[in-house]
Amino acid sequence: MRILLHYDGEFERPGWDVVTCSEQDEARFAGLLPDAEVIWHVLRPLTGADFDRAPKLRLVQKLGTGVNTIDLDAAEERGVAVANMPGRNAQAVAETALLLMLAALRKVVAFDAHTRAGRGWPADPALTGGEIAGRTVGLLGGGEIATLLRGMLTAIGATVLYTSRTPRPDDPAWRPLDDLLRASDIVSVHIPLTDETHHLLDRDRLALLRPGAVVVNTARGAVIDERALVDALDSGHLAGAGLDVFEQEPVAPGNPLLKREDVVVMPHVAWLTHETWDRYFEVAMENVRRLESGADLLHRVR
């Protein structure tokens, strides 16, 4: 079965017919689509036009959780199954969220620039950072990533609160969204992008955060209104942000967030570890075996 790994990655297993294609190489991708029976998909959006060029396609396997980059209706209309793999990147994403919190609090971007310019010591007193211990961290989401991160933060000495779509009033750590924001020194996003969560953290909700708060996002960029985030940083209400995701991806070089020393950025790679790839391929290979045998797919979305 011909499998198209749509990413700058490698996959070598005896007996597996896998071709790879960079997400930036549109010409090669178009040339490979007609023979593809399975696409192992990462981030570059898959559209109805892509499905039209792939008459043999039977399965789109998301390497990750979020399927907002796949035209699910177009896939269903053409009889193409879609599956994801929830939780397989949870450890990596939770660790990255913690990394971004620490980097924003300790002003790593500014210190890095100062050090490379020969001004790193003695340090600028204005760049004195803070610690996670003793702060309140609010997590948007109550899934596996948020649960893992909650344990890490508690071990460091933070007070951890969370909110979720399903109210959990019996859990003393659960709060309604606005109450959580009012109580938080750091807020970290761990929810999918839907019509309801688009710009969930808008100008009004960012204003609810405590003065000097830090915002971290390793989920989906459009959960945060980027213009409102820039304004909150400009005003000094927020002290910093750590962002692995953006409203437009790949992020445009002119995005004002990229020019700020109070913002730590990464290119949607919170999940990207050797260990995550191993877990991804384990599920992806199993679903190809199930597709060939006619068995039910793991984590089928459509």
UniProtKB/TrEMBL annotation:
Molecular function terms, GO-annotated: glyoxylate reductase (NADPH) activity; hydroxypyruvate reductase [NAD(P)H] activity; NAD binding
Any one cellular-component term (Gene Ontology): cytosol
Organism per entry: Actinomadura harenae
Gene3D superfamilies in the cross-refs: NAD(P)-binding Rossmann-like Domain
Protein name: Hydroxyacid dehydrogenase
D-isomer specific 2-hydroxyacid dehydrogenase catalytic domain: residues covered: 15-301
Transmembrane segments: none
UniProt similarity note: Belongs to the D-isomer specific 2-hydroxyacid dehydrogenase family.
